[in-house]
Amino acid sequence: MPELHINLLAEPLWPLLNKFYRRHHSPMKALKGGQLWVAKHSEIVAGLCLSPVVGGQWLTGLFVDPSLRGQGLAARLIREAVAPLEGTVWLLCHPELEGFYQRLGFTQDTPLPQSLAERLVRYKRNKPMIAMGLDPKAKQVALASRTG
User: Fold this and answer.
1) Which residues form the N-acetyltransferase domain (predicted)?
2) DSSP 8-state secondary structure symbol assigned to residue 33
């Protein structure tokens, strides 16, 4: 893979992430009021959104170009995006993704803020979902063990 750059997307460029999602027929959308992180070389090849919630951040919209999956790109993007954050990082995902997120230090035993707990209940009405969190102490250990 050519040299990859991971960075925070400036607000005027946010439509580019939604264009990336649409190009790959993903239902994901960049959430306003958060931080949008992208991986790119000549164009965006992966993205995610971090939105503030009580006690930390909510990670949504993680998507990697299907032709580039299986190369560690999602893990690298998550690690770089969450490294500067304080507080817990939560996500809601399909149960089959649990192992992937566990390898990055996320667990199911991190208490959810009420807003995400309510969202999880709504989501579970239509599809299987789990909540996972990466607490600040575990995050430091997970990030340190995966650098280098």
Assistant:
1) 1-137
2) T
Q: Closest by alpha carbon to 23, among 31, 15, 34, 13?
A: 15
The CATH classification of domain 5-145, taken from the options 3.40.630.30, 1.10.760.10, 3.30.365.10, 2.60.40.2470:
3.40.630.30
Which tokens sit at 61? 């919209």
pLDDT 10s digits, 35-73? 999 999 889 999 999 999 999 999 999 999 999 999 999
Side chain identity, residue 103: R
pTM over 0.85: yes
Give the containing element (helix H, strand E) for 61.
Answer: strand 56-64
Phi/psi of residue 78, nearest 5 degrees = -60, -50
